[in-house]
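Reopening closed ticket. The problem is back. First fold of the pair:
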Amino acid sequence: METRYPWYEHGWSPSYAILDSDDFKFIKAPHPELYNLGTDPKELNNIIGGSRGRAGKMAETMNEIREEFAASSIATDGLHELDHETRDRLSSLGYVLTGGTDREIPPDAPDVKDMTEVMKMLSRASETSARSTRFPPKKRECYSPCSNEE
């Protein structure tokens, strides 16, 4: 499992996760996490401090899987450059990322878990903006036979 949304939208570190057959979940992030989903299904107790060996093996497995996928035909077959018109149309529908997706992710990119207060502020600002009546819609003016009443 992975999410690059934090990187694409905010420049924060993406997160990658892997599950093993013993119900452990390892999350690769600037502050890595390890959970025993059998005893902690809500992921409340990060046990990475006492399980560095397991976390290391899971991180290795995750890296091997990601490298195999990147080298496979699944990752590259059918990819081609989109013409500008198609890219613009797909982008307007939210299907094509337009940000700096090709940039390398720096090792010091913020961990999304450290940015929760920033996300709350961004969410509040967005909600406030949506409710704003400071700039109400302009009244329609007609220059042909029509009514200015709405």
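Second fold of the pair, where the issue appears:
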Amino acid sequence: MNSIDRGVPVLTFGIVGPPTCSIIYGYDENGDVLIGWSQFTDEQNPDDPTDAYFAENYFLKRNGLDKSEALIFIGNKKSPLNIVESVRTSIKNIPKYANLSATDRVVFGKAAFESWADSLSDDTCFKEENDLISPLDTYGSCVVQIATNMHYIQRYLSMATELCPDMIPLIQELENTYQRVKDALKKVSDFQGGYFFDADKNALLQKDFRETLADLIRELGSCYMDVAGVVEKYFAKGNNRRIYFTYSSRLRRLNKNEVFERVMGFPLSSRKDVLASQKHCLRECLCGRTNIACQNGNRRFAVFQSCGEQGRVAPLCNLPDEALPHTP
């Protein structure tokens, strides 16, 4: 309540619908009733008319914290992040997050898919139709998480291609690997008759059906972990490379478009958001905030490219302009 009193909303997971992120921006009755927004505000609760969910603007939820998985409080403003480095780091960290150790409440990576598959082996949850409510809710949450990831992954990788062209070879491998994840997810969906068992949810009452479904989920998990393997293999080969360069008065006489294309290997974008990130990347290089290889006494534009081996840098300044690298 203190945060809301200061005019700062609180983020939460849950309260209304599944534990997806939603916003608490008000309260009533000394905090007993929470006011906020969630993508599930259009769901009415017929069992408790005091829980009023409004589709367009907000929800009212009594004892809402009982349904919250976590709260996020917003503190003081921090310095803005570099979107290019954020995207680059997010891709490099895929193996790290896929291999996080399990906690009492959360499992990650392959273990998450194994737990998902194992949940189908508990016969006590699948004796009759009335038993399906709870396992279907849990199962549906798993489906929503991975289906949402796959729905947006290509958009994210396309953005990464624009912002991090030096990682294009890796991104192309990721696109192919994520396509196999999508194919594996489609096999799950097709077998169970839609994401939420639209054809017949009672099929879950059949043990052989659940065993086959569990195998498909494990196959899906293996494909998902292949993504982490692609990233690990890429950087294990020494592909964490950058373009190194120096510049002289000759470079400073070039206009900004020529400078950018000569240094980065591709033209400035016409999109304002991408253009800002590209200029920031160039500015970091020119200001020495990334690795710079200096060549004493060279009065011309010098470009270097890392060969991927520690301590070894190959000069490219004597090559014709068309031979300058497009990507590291």
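Update: turned out to be a display glitch only; the data is intact. The two ends are 51 Å apart (CA to CA). DSSP finds ten helices and eight strands in the chain. Please close again.
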